[in-house]
Design brief:
Elements (H helix, E strand, L loop, with lengths): L1 H44 L36 H14 L3 H12 L11 E2 L4 E2 L3 H8 L7 H19 L2 H20 L6 H26 L1
Antiparallel strand pairs: 1-2
Helix pairs in contact: 2-5, 3-7, 5-6, 6-7
């Protein structure tokens, strides 16, 4: 009997220990699951880090032999830096576009304000419309139409292509202002000039006279 009693007591102790161990295992498992769940939820709800990517775009430049010689550069009495005016000369020399025409267009389009944006989505010095931004960016890697250098580069490229196509400053200006489709519809109706084209051509004549006066004064010296 004594042996049986001891055996029974020992068996109860083992079951008790086993129950305690199982309880610890269950508790540990629950704690581990809770910890892992907390990490997952924390990562899911944590604010994502924002990364700002800044694109660097080089202003197009030209070979030295395509630039006008120093004595051919006349700095106009307008609120544009000499650096920017020199750049306009460079691009115009490459595109065979009169500098006086571009200065006149900038005067007409933006009054020399590089940051102006119109209600119709026209940007910068030469008022490049948003409809042109994508293809200009793809073709010339321009990204900021409020950058004066990129803006005049694109504007000169556009007006230069119209001059080449129509061989007439007035018609080219109409296409620049109205778009190809709008200009062609106007021409079909017998309209060969607009207040815009006439105003720019008048300004162009004014700036050409300024160049001539400066050239005369330089010769007199």
């Amino acid at each position: 009997m004594a042996t049986q009693c001891r055996g029974t007591k020992t068996k109860r102790i083992n079951r008790h220990k086993l129950a305690v161990i199982q309880a610890y295992i269950i508790i540990g498992t629950l704690v581990l699951i809770g910890f892992i769940g907390g990490l997952v939820v924390g990562r899911a709800t944590a604010p994502k880090k924002q990364v700002t990517v800044t694109e660097t775009v080089e202003v197009p430049s030209y070979e030295a032999n395509s630039l006008p010689v120093a004595e051919e550069v006349t700095y106009f009495d307008v609120p544009l830096s000499h650096s920017l005016q020199r750049y306009i000369y460079e691009v115009c020399a490459d595109e065979n576009v009169p500098v006086s025409l571009i200065i006149a267009m900038i005067d007409q389009e933006s009054k020399f304000n590089p940051e102006v944006v119109s209600k119709t989505g026209d940007y910068g010095l030469m008022q490049i419309n948003t409809i042109n931004h994508e293809w200009l960016a793809e073709e010339y890697r321009t990204a900021d139409m409020l950058d004066p250098y990129q803006n005049v580069f694109c504007g000169i490229k556009v007006i230069g292509s119209y001059i080449q196509n129509y061989n007439d400053y007035g018609l080219a200006l109409m296409a620049y202002n109205m778009g190809d489709y709008g200009a062609k519809k106007a021409w079909e109706n017998g309209i060969k000039s607009t207040s815009y084209s006439e105003s720019v051509l008048a300004l162009m004549q004014k700036y050409e006279q300024e160049v001539n006066v400066n050239a005369t004064n330089a010769d007199a010296k």
